[in-house]
Amino acid sequence: MSRTESEAAFLARYDPADYARPAVAVDLMLLGLPGGRPTILLLQRDRHPHAGRHALPGGFVGIDEALDAAAARVLHEKAGGARAHLEQLYTFGAVERDPRMRIITVAYLALLTEAAFAEALARAPALHPGTIAASSAGEGPVTVHAIDGAALPLAFDHAEIVALALRRLRGKLDTSAVGFSLLPELFTLRQLQDVHEAILGTRLNKPAFRRRMLDRGWLEPTGRFETGTSYRPAELYRFRPNPSHPPSPTLSQGE
Amino acid sequence: MSRTESEAAFLARYDPADYARPAVAVDLMLLGLPGGRPTILLLQRDRHPHAGRHALPGGFVGIDEALDAAAARVLHEKAGGARAHLEQLYTFGAVERDPRMRIITVAYLALLTEAAFAEALARAPALHPGTIAASSAGEGPVTVHAIDGAALPLAFDHAEIVALALRRLRGKLDTSAVGFSLLPELFTLRQLQDVHEAILGTRLNKPAFRRRMLDRGWLEPTGRFETGTSYRPAELYRFRPNPSHPPSPTLSQGE
DNA sequence: CAAGCATATATCCGCTATGCGTATTAGTTA
DNA sequence: TAACTAATACGCATAGCGGATATATGCTTG
Fold first, then answer.
1. 8 Å CB contact of A171 and B249
2. For the whole prediction, is pTM greater than 0.85?
3. Phi/psi class of residue A50: alpha, beta or left (left: φ > 0; alpha: ψ in -120 to 50)?
4. What CA–CA distances, in Å, run from A196 to A33, B4, B33?
5. Which of A28, A151, A180, B5 has the most CB within a 10 Å radius?
6. Using the CA of B237, which nucleotide's C1' is the nearest one?
7. Residues B183 and B141 in one domain
8. What is the spatial distance, in angstroms and rounded to an integer, between the CA atom of B189 and the C1' atom of C12?
9. Yes or no, beta carbons of B77 and A6 under 8 Å apart
């Protein structure tokens, strides 16, 4: 490519009002942990392309709508207004990722508590839960299965999005406060450990985990205890962001 | 907002070919460490808006151009083809971030070696170096200064982009292999430590740093030594990605 | 050419975090 | 009341790290 050609290409693109623009969408990975298994909520496509396959809920970004607002709107529309922690993940912009037209999609991770997950499933019957295979520890795409064990093939590049989301979540689980987004207001240390173990796909050492979490200074003991157990009830804790050590250093909140 | 209204809004946006689309751009934060100080390369705007202020080099994404390809093209056009490690950072999509029109920008971090930084500066005279204030350790926007110490106010939300890039770089510096992108093919342990100290803005313990880096298994001793020193020359090492432990777990490479 | 110097490299020590096992406690159930 | 389960507390060995110190090596200088 000669210098003048690239210069011309630059000038040609300078005022995009006169040229074709890619469409911009947001796709949401709605993640919950029902029964302690990482599960996402998917919509089955009923038309071309990838008819029959399952896709992440998404929608186009309005011309007067911020990215985060678009993600919140899609959450509201597709998941029946269930509350969730939204966090921007990554933007996928391969040219051929959608055969219909050029679509750039900003992927968001939405973390649902067990209650929010159940609520979304109840209010939005079109959503299908898909558990992420525990073998998805390494690299590469991820496989998702329905409750009956049948494989749920994903549409477009959504398997890549799910894989990236899981990697990112695992990476920041121990250093940020995202884990609490999957728990109710009050929770026990065992529940917190269950969340970590479910996402990491490994077993964790109990005393070490307790010490680490308590030393972080993010846990506030409430003096209350769980009820209805057939064994010694555990104390309930509350998440309290630590002002000295920000809970999410690399977190989004860009705008 | 009633259910039917949001349904209508959804339908209205369903075929974006008929509706206005945001423009999509990429902005590059070209970062080098000349003289051991984190420095970025900026273009001074000569027209409205933010005339006179400095901005990150950027460009619009072509309709048949992948995001990563657009970032590589902007690097080529604006930095004279200097080699750099490109990595997608975050996508900024506030509605009013550009007063002319709706522009969503995908921010990329480009890491330049000392040689590449000098080369870019030589080949692209329009680029102005701006050192990032060392006080930018905490949150919030970042302040950038010219060589003569004058403040360089940034245009648009670019101070936010720079701040986020720095945070992300600091966060993954010790766990990924990005640090090597700022060093030449062969380097000494002292140079590697200088890179880490410059980015983190702190002093590091030398023996501990050496041990940590050597134990990672990413460093291959070459048996060669630096020359021209007036003291004992240090051994030169080479970066060798470790197959067992991936060097960049949460790295981009999405598509 | 020998002494001095600056920095790389190696070794040692103490503190802290962590893995892991074990004892104790507090509820429920038989 | 005894057995059982899981929470909580404690003890201990090990690994990693901050920090200081000692040794090695090449250049400079008188």
1. yes
2. yes
3. left
4. 10, 39, 38
5. A28
6. C8
7. no
8. 22
9. yes
